[in-house]
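Step 1: inspect the first sequence and its tokens.
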Amino acid sequence: MAEDMKLGAIGQIARRVGDVAAARHWYGEILGLPHLYSFGNLAFFDCGGVRLFLSQDGASKDESLLYFKVPDIHATRAALAARGVAFTDTPHVIHRHTDGTEEWMTFFTDNESRPLALMAQIKP
């Protein structure tokens, strides 16, 4: 790579869905992601500056997980569970850094049973 060429931040993540209308409702109304726009079988949401692109062209179970950063993993989990989100575990520590900061995660599924996660850093 040329020394003056640098990649920027991730601008968009794509995910295939089986039913874009159901996914638009779930990601927008249940998760509360801001809906940017939709057209045809496509829907776009804002994930803290990264665009989530949903396209209805056949869902795949082999896609990457989406990890959503949250400031309070316990409160966010409780709020989403109250909206009917199905969690597969409880928030748990996955790593402790040398400075004592803990990495926490909890996993859940979307409306098509694909895995998603919440993640948080808790400083001592």
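Step 2: inspect the second sequence and its tokens, then contrast the two.
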Amino acid sequence: MRLLKMKKYLLAAVALAALIVSCSSPVKEPSAVVSGRMIGNDVETLYLVKATDGLDNSEMVDSVRLDENGCFRFELSQTDSSPRFYKLVYAGGRPVTLLIGDGDRITVDSAGDIFHNYTIEGSDESELIRQFNREYYGGYDRLLSLADMASHASSSEAAALNKQIYRTIVETIQAQVRFVGAHADRLASVYAMRQTLPAPFAEAFAGEGITNAHRNTVVEAVGRSYPTSPYIDVLRADMAAEQAVAELSDKITYQDFPEIELPDIYGTRHKLSQMRGKVILLYFWAAGLGNSNTMNADLRTVYDKYHDRGLEIYQVSADTDSVTWIEAVRGQKLPWVSVCDYQGPYSLPFRVYNVTSLPTVYLIDREGDIVATGSTLAELDRRIAALL
């Protein structure tokens, strides 16, 4: 009997000790927390997305539904010592960009339009991004509004609006440059430098504002503030690409149009200038696009219609997969010059000709002047007929 009681006491003691140990074990705190409240809008679900270290893609981290009071909370179990770019994404608006690192407890509140009215606490870097967005995207949105008004205005009204458009572009670019100069040692400047004006103003003002001198200053300053940040290499890559374009552009032989010399599927190199004296349809495309068959069918219609009268086509591919491109050219039996260097949109011709979407078409007359451009072939048919 005594032995039985001792066993009971022993089991009770062990159980009590286990309970004490389990209760006293520390609960692991999340590495970072993003919480807040969003009211006065129709947002129901928030998504937290993390940018890749190369800033060329993103991945979903988590999603939450706002509660009845508009509150939300994200808990991150693992973050990096050097802050990384994240975005709060929601339907119907621009995302809110955050910089999140180990130990951060960030609060994001907004009322009404989230992007234009949010506030940040708990992250100085994220607050700097908010301040930049307020000024830069204020100008960005004014620019869109003015451009829309100008497109529907009379000639006299459009002239006045165009002056406002130009002034707004200059002010917005200057705001970007000022911010980067004032915060060169902050990761928020990396974000600021990579923002661009809406098309077509971005192309028209390419080379204005942020330069490699600014990027180099930020690389050095951020390198001191955040020596392990992967974004330093991103900026160095941006600088190298910009420098390469500048150097190669200096070597381009200009007719009245920039020269292109790239290989076809057999490795034979073709110069665009070899077609000089003909009407040239310079066509940027990608076989990897789902509608490439339709695009080339339309292109063939134009080619068959005008080739005997002096039309030539020089087709440049943005494909990076040789198999996809070669099979498309062979399978569709394309009768014109089709070339590719597998560098995708980073290929020099795409940069020199400011190709920002596919397909893009340039029409070059017999004298070598670029006389028309557009994204569809139908709108160029009349011009081709007139030139021939």
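Step 3: confirm your contrast with the notes below.
Residues 261-387 form a domain with the Glutaredoxin fold (CATH 3.40.30.10). The chain is about 45% helix and 20% strand.
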